[in-house]
Amino acid sequence: MIKAKDIMKQDVVTITPETSVEEIGRLFIEKGISGAPVVLQDGSLFGIVTENDLISQNKKFHIPTILRIFDAFIPMESSSKVEKEIKKMTASTAAEICTKEVITVKEETPLSEVATIMA
Predict the structure, then answer these.
(1) Segment holding 49, helix H or strand E
(2) Which of 1, 20, 35, 66 is close enough to 50 for a disulfide, judged by CB 3.0 to 4.6 Å?
(3) What are the domain boundaries of the chain?
(4) CB of 21 within 8 A of CB of 49?
(5) How far apart are CA 13 and CA 36, in angstroms?
C-alpha cells in the first residue's frame, strides 16, 4: 500500500514568520514553487503561504471605496472576515498573510486517505 511518505517531498523550502512578502515572492520565483510552509525556530509548523496569498496581498485598492461598492450590491460577510482580508492585503510578513489552519497528514497515512482529504 502506498503511503504519504512514498510520495512526499522531503527537501522542502521553508520560511519563517518574519520573512518579508517581497522575499517570499523572490523565493517562489527562484525555486519555482507555489507555496511554502512557515515554520518556527523549533521546527514546528506555524502556517503556509501560497501564491494566492501573495496575489491577494499585492492588490492595490482604495479599501473604503471597494467596501462601499460591495456593500451596495452584495450583502457583506461578517465584519471579522472582511477585516481579515483587508489585513492580508496590507501585510508585510509571512506571519500576516499565511494560512494558519493547515491540513496535514502523518507519513504513514495511506495515499487513498490523502486523496480523500485533498478532494
Answers:
(1) strand 45-50
(2) 35
(3) 4-59+90-104
(4) no
(5) 6
Distance CA 84, CA 76 (A): 13
The model's pTM is 0.69
Q: How far apart are CA 114 and CA 99, in angstroms?
A: 20
4-59+90-104: CATH class: alpha beta
If we measure between CA atoms, which residue out of 30, 80, 23 comes closest to residue 57?
23
* Neighbour count for residue 57 (Cβ, 10 Å): 19
Q: Write down the number of H helices and E strands in the chain.
A: 7, 2
Q: List pLDDT tens digits, range 26-81.
A: 899 899 999 999 999 999 999 999 988 887 765 555 455 555 555 555 565 666 77
Alpha-helical runs (H) found in the chain: 4-7, 21-31, 51-58, 63-73, 79-89, 94-97, 111-118
